[in-house]
Design goal:
Elements: H1 2-92, H2 97-124, H3 127-132, H4 134-145, E1 151-155, H5 165-184, E2 190-198, E3 201-208, H6 215-220, H7 226-237, E4 241-245, E5 253-259, H8 260-263
Parallel strand pairs: 1-2
Antiparallel strand pairs: 2-3, 3-5, 4-5
Helix pairs in contact: 1-2, 1-7, 4-5, 5-7
Catalytic activity: ATP + protein L-histidine = ADP + protein N-phospho-L-histidine
Organism: Spirosoma fluviale
Protein name: histidine kinase
Length: 270
């Protein structure tokens, strides 16, 4: 009787152990499956966000292109016609010095407006980027931004381009945003754009000697930090990274990194 009881206890214990092992394996398998599902869901969410941002940036570029065409074909053409009409009218009333002076003044204002229209149109759609590539477009950006108060320099040691056109456009837009911020907000007198190519990585830095800013405070401001958030959003589309080395009272250094083999740039030019 005791032998049978011992045997039953041993069998029962073995069954319980097998069941416990089975339960442990099942729970571990279930948790692993849940973890994989959660990871897949997060990746799906991340991809969905990238798709949304891709569509947003593509829409922005299309709108920029439309506005540039409207300004060039619409406003630019009307200004040219207005200038020709003004010249014809001036010839008809020639002889009065005061009227002639007013014509010259008006013509000068029209010329200045036409120059501004062309400048805004180039800013909206960088034709140099399409024709000659990123380095030429950045050189043009630096040249246009340089004036009597601000000097913008471009350095690109051992950097061979071209990159994919959409990546060119992304880097150009980021440089454009950072240079504008340095001039308008940081009141910088010296700005340097650096472009490096290291193996399969492209790095771009924009540095200035301006007054700096409080990064956290700017990012908390929904309107003030929009440009910086746009930079982060643009880079997230191609798995890029940005580092802000900034503080109030001193110059800023913003560093961009993009792994070319991971970038898989989206088409923002269609």
């Amino acid at each position: 009787m005791s032998i049978d009881s011992g045997f039953l206890i041993a069998v029962g214990t073995a069954v319980l152990l097998v069941m416990a092992v089975f339960i442990i394996i099942f729970v571990a398998f279930y948790q692993q499956k849940q973890a994989k599902q959660q990871l897949a869901f997060k990746e799906l969410q991340a991809q969905h966000r990238r798709d949304l941002m891709e569509a947003t940036f593509r829409g922005q570029e299309e709108e920029r292109k439309r506005l540039a065409e409207d300004m060039h074909d619409g406003i630019g053409t009307m200004l040219s016609v207005t200038k020709m009409s003004l010249n014809q009218l001036e010839r008809q009333v020639a002889g009065d010095g005061q009227i002639s002076f007013q014509f010259q003044k008006t013509r000068s204002m029209i010329d200045e407006t036409m120059t501004n229209v062309r400048r805004i149109s180039r800013n909206l759609v960088p034709t140099t980027l399409d024709r000659f590539g990123l380095l030429a477009a950045l050189e043009e950006l630096a040249d246009r931004a340089t004036d009597s108060n601000t000097e913008v320099q471009l350095t690109f040691p051992e950097c061979e381009t071209p990159f994919p056109p959409s990546l060119d456009l992304m880097l150009y837009r980021i440089a454009q945003e950072l240079v504008n911020n340095a001039i308008r907000h940081a009141r910088a007198s010296q700005i340097t754009i650096q472009l490096f190519c290291i193996d399969q990585e492209v790095r771009m830095s924009v540095m200035d000697n301006g007054v700096g800013f409080d990064f956290d405070a700017v990012m908390e401001n929904k309107q003030g930090g929009l440009g910086l958030r746009n930079i982060e959003s643009r880079l997230s589309v191609v798995n890029g990274h940005v580092t802000f080395d900034v503080a109030p009272g001193r110059g800023s250094q913003i560093h961009i990194q993009v792994q070319l083999h991971d970038a898989q740039p989206v088409n923002l030019l269609s």
